[in-house]
Amino acid sequence: MSLTDTGDWFSDCEDIAMAYREVADPERGLPPGLVPLMDRGCAMWAFIDCRTSDGQMWDWDPNLCCQGHALAPLEQTLAEWLTDWLRGTMPDGPYTHRELAARGCPAR
After folding, report:
1. Residue 79: phi, psi to the nearest 5?
2. How far is it, in rounded angstroms, from Cα 66 to Cα 59?
3. Beta bridge partners of 35
4. Contact 92, 98 (CB under 8 A)
5. Would you give the distance in Å from CA 13 to the centre of its chain?
6. Which InterPro entries does the protein's record reference (predicted)?
7. Which of 14, 34, 51, 68 sits CB 3.0–4.6 Å from 47 for a disulfide?
8. Helix or strand run (H / E) with residue 20
């Protein structure tokens, strides 16, 4: 996500502010302070938690089970996540180190 409209984006959102406004809808059930950082496609997102000092990263993947279990913490800070991205080692997902919050989901 860019902070400005670059005219070249891979999301339906033009910038990070527009993406935040769309996901901040209370019906999505996302905690306040989570800001969408990367649209991974197929309704999947990577979020940064602005409530934490190290920028804990979260994964949103409603395809794994149900919307109630779509959000799960990644075992990465923003710095670690960006380092993996710069090295070209960040997986497209599902993340191998993702904590599966949906393990007990009956919809799974």
Report:
1. -60, -45
2. 14
3. 48
4. no
5. 14
6. Knr4/Smi1-like_sf
7. 34
8. helix 16-23
Q: How many domains in the chain?
A: 1
Residue 108 binned pLDDT confidence (cut-offs 50, 70, 90): low
The CA distances from residue 106 to 38, 64, 68, 72, in Å, are 28, 12, 11, 17
Are the C-beta atoms of residues 94 and 70 closer than 8 Å to each other? no
- Note whether residue 11 is domain-resident: no
Higher pLDDT, 66 or 86: 86
Q: Is the residue at 79 inside a domain?
A: yes
* Residue 97 domain-assigned (yes or no): no
Q: Is residue 8 part of a domain?
A: no
Task: Give the domain extent around 55.
Answer: 16-87
Is residue 94 a contact partner of residue 61, using CB atoms and an 8 Å limit?
yes
Nearest alpha carbon to residue 85 among 57, 51, 60, 65:
57
Q: Give the pair of three-digit tokens for residue 16.
A: 């990070």
Amino acid at 88: G
What does the pLDDT look like over 20-65, one tens digit per residue?
777 777 676 678 889 888 877 777 888 999 999 999 999 888 777 7
